[in-house]
Amino acid sequence: MGDQHSSAQQQGAQPSGADLERWRLILGPAAESCTGGLSAENAQRDAALDWLYSRDDDLGKRGVRRGGARSDGQRGADDSPSQLTTVDWLDGIHRLFPKETIERLERDAIERYKINDVLTNPDVLERIEPSPSLLKAVLRTKHLMNPQVLAAARRIVEEVVQRLVEKLSVQVRTVFTGSRTRKPSWHRRARDFDLKRTLRANLKHYQPEERRVAIERPQFHSRTSKRLEQWQLVLLVDQSGSMTGSVIHSAVTAACLHALPGLKTHLIAFDTSVVDMTSDVDDPVELLMKVQLGGGTDIARAVEYGAGLIDNPRRSIVALISDFYEGGSEARLVHLVKQLCEQGTQVLGLAALDEDANPIYDHQMAARLSGVGAHVGAMTPSHLVEFVAERLGT
Q1: pLDDT of res. 79
Q2: What is the pLDDT of residue 103?
Q3: How many CA atoms lie within 13 A of 19 on its CB side?
């Protein structure tokens, strides 16, 4: 009886949800009545695959309808994969698939389906509105562009980077030009206007019938300049495909901090090799055009290189910007970070440096680095600027 019961259990075993989702991805929407729907992330994968491969003429010959087609063969007016733009698709596949799959999808898009509106058509690049998502797509695919297209793509890089630099530069100036004090000042600058003291000083000019205070003596704060001792900031930036946004913002942040007195800024890009890009740190556009995204990851090698740049450990900040998925020796990485922390260096482990600061990363490795003294988390560029300013003020 026991054997019969075991056999019945095996015969009645149901496939797991993950198995059903894989079958749904393989078979397409027609299989949903049997497999059920997809998770949000797998639905995005399905949309990305559908956007590309629904162009295949052989699907119609085999009676397969994809790309948001209804059972009557007509496309529905919904949010189906056909609504994706090329830029959306390029950005999406780099978030959703491993490197080998991305390379295959890009190759099929260009060679099999001749989707060339972004990659090979300079006219489209001249007309298209520059945006952060388009900048990411350009950086991820610039290795596929001919010189003419690359020249057109550079305009996108320049415009988006300029906007980012202008925005962050305002924050840098605010943080590093000195702190306000309670002492009054005769220098009348709008950013130093003291509202509370102004109201108190002019209350006698209150006009009840108009319910307002006539300001005859505006009050202003004074500022004390920060005395900056020489510090070093070493930015170690992971070039893997998932870190594209962080690579962009690292270049912009380095450019904004580079000219500050009292701060020597280094920018190092890495995958399995290490490239010192400090010579281009004052030109973030040129720097980004040289970045080669993708490849493996040897974080320990980058940390070792960065440690070799440090002159005064107690006046140094090492910001490791990575998803912490180590392709080299994990033990060596942890040991190097521990050494840096023990010698007094401020070590930041940033799983993201971008406006979203919502990363996907190796939590186990992040915890190990935190355990040996690193500050681990995610930051926006302005938060990193504030962190650096606080350390320089100590």
Answers
A1: 42
A2: 76
A3: 4
